[in-house]
């Protein structure tokens, strides 16, 4: 595999708020820049509510990498599933006098339509966790608490 680059640009707007975007994600034909406003979290001085924070973006990078890796491995493994979603939680702690994201907790939920696929779905999830390049690039502990359920079909009422 060759080296890949991912470019992001950050621009200060006002107070402690800025915007970030990637020139690689711009669609000039439709005037789309995919900007995201960023600010410190409200737990810190000058934090701005209802705005994406570096801590949220860090947590979402791990969570979204798990999902995209799961999707790729599912396709390769021919795992058919009904749905995937994942809640995640980033834990910020002071370690040796410095703040750090000490842990990212992942709670993926996969729904399959056949009990025979439960074990395969769980194996694919654990493979995805192991292969996730973002998780493999950070010092935070990454914990995963998967749930695999079988889609139940409501029976049609008989007339």
TrEMBL record:
Coiled coil: none annotated. It comes from Psychroflexus salinarum. This is OsmC family protein. Transmembrane segments: none annotated. InterPro entries: KH_dom-like_a/b (IPR015946), OsmC/Ohr_fam (IPR003718), OsmC/Ohrsf (IPR036102), OsmC_Ohr_Peroxiredoxin (IPR052707). PANTHER family: OSMC_OHR FAMILY PROTEIN, OSMOTICALLY INDUCIBLE FAMILY PROTEIN.
């Amino acid at each position: 595999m060759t080296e890949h680059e991912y470019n992001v640009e950050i621009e200060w707007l006002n107070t402690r708020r800025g915007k970030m975007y990637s020139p690689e994600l711009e669609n000039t034909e439709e005037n789309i820049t995919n900007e995201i406003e960023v600010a410190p979290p409200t737990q810190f001085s000058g934090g701005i509510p209802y705005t994406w924070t570096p801590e949220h973006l860090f947590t979402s990078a791990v969570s979204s990498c798990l999902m995209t890796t799961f999707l790729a491995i599912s396709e390769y493994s021919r795992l058919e599933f009904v749905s995937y979603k994942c809640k995640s939680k980033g834990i910020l702690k002071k370690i040796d006098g410095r703040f750090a994201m000490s842990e990212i907790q992942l709670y993926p939920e996969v729904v399959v339509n056949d009990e025979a696929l439960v074990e395969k779905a769980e194996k694919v999830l654990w493979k995805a966790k192991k292969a996730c390049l973002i998780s493999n690039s950070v010092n935070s502990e990454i914990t995963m608490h998967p749930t695999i359920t079988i889609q139940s079909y409501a029976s049609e009422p008989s007339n």
